């Protein structure tokens, strides 16, 4: 069967797709095991996709399945691939095949502010242990079971796993090895921000 791309090109493309998939997963604060679990897959199975060792990653149905587990879309994956493969894309006009683009060159999206909080206890174990640094985006609302950082009315910060919320209370898990349910009155929570990465220091 004829191939339309050079083997080296195909390898580079699948590696770029795998790296973009890893970036999407880290942005959502998930480990490979957690992402794989959403699809009934092992962490090793998920890792093979991220390492570019499964050619099925080229298939649209596989991309939909993997990105869906991350609450993302194949389009999100494609945008990350494009951004990482063409670092100067923001300064170059985009020319679709056979067409010449005229007019305004659009600026890239503004960079997103990220903050960090280092855990000093094992309150969120096994999700995250003492010493783990949580990277979070102020103002980005978390999804269910995603890590979050809550800024309390007294100025203190609490790291928890988001469950749900309404106008009366914020329901989270954490504050103990069993990740017990905790209900926080909304008047006590000044802001809730989604954790997008967990970093092991040292």
Automatic annotation (TrEMBL):
InterPro entries: Cro/C1-type_HTH (IPR001387), Lambda_DNA-bd_dom_sf (IPR010982). Transmembrane segments: none annotated. SMART domains: HTH_XRE. Residues 21-77 form the HTH cro/C1-type domain. Gene3D superfamilies: lambda repressor-like DNA-binding domains. Pfam families: HTH_31. This is Transcriptional regulator with XRE-family HTH domain.
């Amino acid at each position: 069967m004829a191939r339309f791309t050079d083997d080296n090109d195909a390898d580079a493309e699948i590696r770029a797709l795998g790296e973009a998939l890893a970036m999407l997963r880290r942005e959502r604060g998930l480990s490979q095991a957690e992402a794989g679990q959403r699809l009934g897959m092992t962490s090793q199975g998920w890792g093979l996709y991220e390492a570019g060792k499964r050619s099925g990653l080229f298939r649209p149905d596989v991309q939909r399945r993997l990105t869906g587990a991350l609450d993302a879309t194949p389009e999100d994956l494609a945008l990350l691939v494009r951004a990482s493969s063409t670092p100067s894309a923001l300064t170059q006009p985009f020319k679709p095949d056979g067409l010449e683009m005229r007019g305004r060159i659009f600026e890239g999206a503004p960079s997103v502010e990220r903050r960090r909080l280092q855990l000093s206890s094992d309150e969120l174990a096994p999700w995250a242990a003492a010493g783990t640094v949580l990277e979070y985006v102020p103002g980005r609302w978390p999804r269910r079971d995603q890590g979050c950082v809550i800024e309390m009315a007294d100025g203190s910060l609490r790291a928890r796993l988001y469950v749900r919320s309404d106008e009366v209370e914020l329901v989270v898990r954490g504050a103990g090895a069993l990740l017990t349910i905790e209900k926080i009155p909304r008047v006590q929570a000044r802001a809730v921000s989604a954790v997008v990465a967990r970093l092991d220091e040292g």
